[in-house]
Task: inverse folding
């Protein structure tokens, strides 16, 4: 990996079924992630993905690039915009990219990650430090 | 109503341990599309030098989310959970979480600020094994949306 290297953007399709599966696996059963009735009642356009699900997908794109499931030293994001997931077969798409911005003193790669849905950023200040080589 | 900033620095008692099971790691890995064999096959994980299955990097949140209920549900602090939105999330790993780990969490209120009628609470959770081996530090910033 070198400074400026880019991860080929990775597209994840996200459907309601994925959210239900993530809810069960993570234990986060907040109804805004499965009930349109509750989601709209609290002012959302509809059911939204768990922020932690989007963070996990972006993390997977980076780890697949690194080729080592234990490579992450640090990983942080800001949830800037909800990922709205319609109740149909297509769901929505989250596109994840990353670029190498530099290296730490220990030689770990510093990545800046982008995640968009419908062309809009859903993660901000998304950065990971990963062990390389 | 703003949250009491004197809660900054408050540390809560260690949580009862969470035992990380292989099937939970497999289930979580499948849910987030983590396909590396080290998440599902103990032999593959050992071949890479790990003691057992490797949990995906955001897995610790499963453990810390439950632990941070100590703070979120602390009546003295008085967070209205129905108004809470997840703002930021950060992990700093000493090592990955492995199947068989018995993890305990120590939660602390790291920061409280108020801006534009909203409160921002940053929690820090030190996740370690029962034997005291540090595993990961987890920060969550929660936004408590103001009324109206």
Result:
């Amino acid at each position: 990996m070198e400074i400026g290297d880019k991860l080929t953007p990775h597209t994840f399709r996200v459907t309601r079924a994925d959210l239900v599966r993530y809810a069960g696996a993570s234990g986060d059963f907040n109804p805004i992630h499965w009930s349109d009735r509750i989601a709209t009642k609290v002012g959302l356009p509809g059911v939204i993905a768990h922020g932690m699900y989007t963070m996990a997908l972006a993390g997977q794109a980076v780890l697949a690039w690194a080729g080592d499931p234990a490579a992450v030293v640090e990983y942080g994001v800001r949830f800037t915009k909800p990922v709205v997931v319609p109740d149909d077969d297509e769901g929505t798409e989250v596109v994840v990219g990353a670029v190498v911005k530099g290296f730490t003193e220990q030689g770990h790669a510093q990545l800046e990650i982008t995640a968009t849905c419908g062309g809009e950023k859903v993660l901000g200040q998304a950065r990971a430090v990963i062990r390389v080589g | 109503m703003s949250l009491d900033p004197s809660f900054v620095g408050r540390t809560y008692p260690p949580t009862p341990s969470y035992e990380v099971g292989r099937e939970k790691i497999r289930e979580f890995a499948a849910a987030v599309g983590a396909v590396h064999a080290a998440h599902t096959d103990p032999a593959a994980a050992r071949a890479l030098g790990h003691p057992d299955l490797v949990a995906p990097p955001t897995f610790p949140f499963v453990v810390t989310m439950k632990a941070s209920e100590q703070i979120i549900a602390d009546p003295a602090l008085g967070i209205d959970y129905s108004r809470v939105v997840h703002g930021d999330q950060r992990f700093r790993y000493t090592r990955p979480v492995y199947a068989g780990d018995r993890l305990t969490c120590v939660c602390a209120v790291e920061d409280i600020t108020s801006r534009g009628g909203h409160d921002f609470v940053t929690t820090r959770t030190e996740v370690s094994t029962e034997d005291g081996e540090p595993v990961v530090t987890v920060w969550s910033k929660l936004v408590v949306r103001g009324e109206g």
In short: The mean pLDDT of chain B is 95. Residues 5-21+58-144 of chain B form a domain with the Thiol Ester Dehydrase; Chain A fold (CATH 3.10.129.10).
